[in-house]
Write a structure and sequence with these properties.
Structural class: alpha/beta
Order of helices and strands: EHEEEHEHEHEHHE
Oligomer: single chain
Largest sheet: 6 strands, mixed
Shape: globular
Length: 205
């Protein structure tokens, strides 16, 4: 049986990074999950049932305020990956995700310019069969975010699927065993809240 580092991807389903995360997961046969605003709201699905028609795996929050779905998706994942920025335009949703991870003391991975191998190596250190929450700019904030995020996640998921189990174990080792096999990630790429244990199983989707 193949054991993957990433077992499930969750997001709020908004245009841009969120939507690319769901589509990449479905393309690679992974479970998808996520909280979305009440009524399935997204900027291109303003009327109920909104996103829930295209992505019935999502669950609406009691509130129509996107802030609630953002916080709940951070809460219910082992680790959150924030992609971007892909433009100079601020992304309030990305900023809110970072703030939620800080308040909830949840692991946060900022992709920035990191390549897929570095990101996967960091995720290996978190654990196996992870629920990964993906967040980032809306498409209206940074046109091209969907395509860029989809390409990044395809590369990560392809590597995760095709790796030899031995490579994964070396990547999860103390660094000496993996010398020459996996690059040591920058210290700043994974941010942990104070006194945060390695995450256990998140609440059921």
């Amino acid at each position: 049986m193949t054991v993957r580092t990433i077992l499930r991807i969750r997001s709020g389903g908004e245009t841009g990074a969120d939507r690319a995360a769901l589509d990449a997961a479905l393309e690679f046969g992974l479970d998808v999950a996520g909280w979305c605003p009440a009524g399935g709201w997204a900027e291109d699905f303003p009327e109920p049932p909104g996103l829930l028609v295209a992505y019935p795996q999502l669950r609406p929050t009691p509130s129509a305020d996107p802030a609630q779905r953002t916080a709940w998706n951070v809460r219910d994942a082992h680790v959150t990956l924030v992609v971007g920025p892909f433009s100079e335009t601020p992304s309030p949703g990305s900023d809110l995700t970072v703030a939620a991870a800080h308040v909830l003391v949840r692991p946060l991975l900022r992709a920035g310019g990191a390549d897929p191998d570095v990101i996967l190596h960091v995720l290996d250190r978190v654990g196996l069969e992870l629920t990964l929450n993906v967040a980032g700019p809306r498409e209206s904030e940074a046109p091209g975010t969907y395509a860029a995020t989809l390409a990044l996640l395809r590369a990560i998921l392809e590597r995760d699927r095709d790796r030899d189990p031995g490579q994964r174990e070396l990547s999860r080792g103390d660094g000496s065993a993996g010398a020459g096999t996996a690059r040591t990630p920058p210290r700043s790429i994974l941010r942990w809240g104070r006194a945060t244990p390695r995450p256990g199983a998140p609440p059921a989707s």
